Design the sequence.
């Protein structure tokens, strides 16, 4: 199905020359994030991937095989479920860089049973929302500086969200650690709540009134690493074969990163 759609829509043509622009990709070495990193490098952006595991070097090797040895892509290991580590690593990154055009928040703790991250916070909430939102805060001065440069399109913060936000428990208030760490919640509720926080988070960024866009996007169900992890049942197997691959779904996210600016 995706091969038919590709011949009609040509998603690879919807991205333009990004020479001189800097992209930070949280969760950029795997799944949909990897395809976004790849597409940006192909279009001459400088890409910095931030990931937890050792997937970063593999992603660099794979992308450079296609784009050439001198492509500008690097990987910074960082566990976004550890705020102390995130602060140290991302503050250094902020101080090192001169501009940031696109911050893509595609790191994701998949639907799973309750468990705590390094900071003893529900790991869905801690990684999907808190770690990435904290990163936005740490890197915001860089985005703001970039937004004030002449002849520069408004920087964007793009979140990977999901229609799973409908599964957030009713009466969610994000009011206390006890509420967040209620281990009686189902996997879908925990994941859905983290995705709801992302959608609401756009509203925290917009009142700054900077020339910076913040938006979240549901990419659709993709046959990415996240889906490959849950292939135990026949239903899961069917889902994997019926859903489209990450390259296709990275298109939706790329459009929100590079499409015409919209008022928020
Ligand atoms: N795939 C789908 O069907 C689907 C559907 C709806 C929405 N989405 C949304 O699309 C986005 C991307 O999904 P995906 O399917 O591409 O996910 P994925 O393949 O599971 O990739 C998740 C990424 O997050 C990184 N990550 C996980 N834990 C981390 C941590 N503690 N610190 C830093 N990085 C961490 C992973 O890298 P390491 O393992 O190397 O750390 C990986 O690069 C998510 O926001 C998701 O909600 C996906």
Sequence:
């Amino acid at each position: 199905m995706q091969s038919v759609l590709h011949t009609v829509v040509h998603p690879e043509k919807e991205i333009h020359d990004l020479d001189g622009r800097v992209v930070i990709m949280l969760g950029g070495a795997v799944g949909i994030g990897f395809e976004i990193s790849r597409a940006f490098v192909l279009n001459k952006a400088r890409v910095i991937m931030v990931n937890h595991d050792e997937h970063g070097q593999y992603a660099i090797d794979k992308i450079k095989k296609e784009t050439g040895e001198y492509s500008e892509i690097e990987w910074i290991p960082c566990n976004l479920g550890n705020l102390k580590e995130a602060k140290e690593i991302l503050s250094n990154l902020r101080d090192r860089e001169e501009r940031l055009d696109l911050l893509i928040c595609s790191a994701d703790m998949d639907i799973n049973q309750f468990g705590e991250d390094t900071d003893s916070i529900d790991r869905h909430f801690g990684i999907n929302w808190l770690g990435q939102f904290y990163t936005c805060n740490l890197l915001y001065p860089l985005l703001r500086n970039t937004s004030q440069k002449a002849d520069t399109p408004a920087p964007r913060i793009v979140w990977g969200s999901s229609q799973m936000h409908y599964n957030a428990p009713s009466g969610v208030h994000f009011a206390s650690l006890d509420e967040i760490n209620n281990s009686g919640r189902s996997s879908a509720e925990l994941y859905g709540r983290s995705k709801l926080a992302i959608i609401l988070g756009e509203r925290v960024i917009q009142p700054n009134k900077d020339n910076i866009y913040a938006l979240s996007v549901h990419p659709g169900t993709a046959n990415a690493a996240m889906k490959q992890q849950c292939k135990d049942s026949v239903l899961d197997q069917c889902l994997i074969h019926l859903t489209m691959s990450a390259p296709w779904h990275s298109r939706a996210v790329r459009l929100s990163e590079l499409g015409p600016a919209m008022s928020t």
